[in-house]
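Order emerges. One example.
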Amino acid sequence: MSSVEPRRRADAERNIAAIIRVASDLFGRGQSPSMAEVAGAAGVRRATLYGHFPSREELIDAVITHAITHTDETLTALALDRDPADVALERLVRTSWPILDRFRRLRTAALAELGSERLRRHHDRTLHHVDQLIRRGQDDGLFRTDLPLDWLVTTFYAVLHAAADEADAGRISPSAAPDLLTRTVLSLLTLRRDDLPEDT
């Protein structure tokens, strides 16, 4: 194999990394850059950008994939199985919020470009942490079992992203969100006596 090929691959990988880094920053600051603006900020030609990402949709998809990979690695490093499920859930929420807050404007761009269903499929990679944690809490008698597990995971996802929307609109402070989210999610997952079905 010619030594030129490894150099070309290395150059391509550096260009891709630079493009994704710059696009993440621009979208994360609430901007809506053109492909030409992304190329300029990344220090590559437009032809190079389009060679890797033929459309704005594919670029945003790659940026979201990068963000989800980072989130998944961060949540995996938490080793949530070391703590009781309710304690681990609080750690999960308090770790997830700064990441979501950082990427919430990117999420807005992704919703517009990719749609809610495609964005949700991306999040399936990180939601398995939530699924496993809630399942363990149910097995240990800490979390409710009267509602389907999939619904509880969906509710967790919806509440976190609702907080991002509220923070984006200025209706809640990002610094207040971790406490609000922790209390809300725990109240949703904890079965109260009043929630028990009446005997018939």
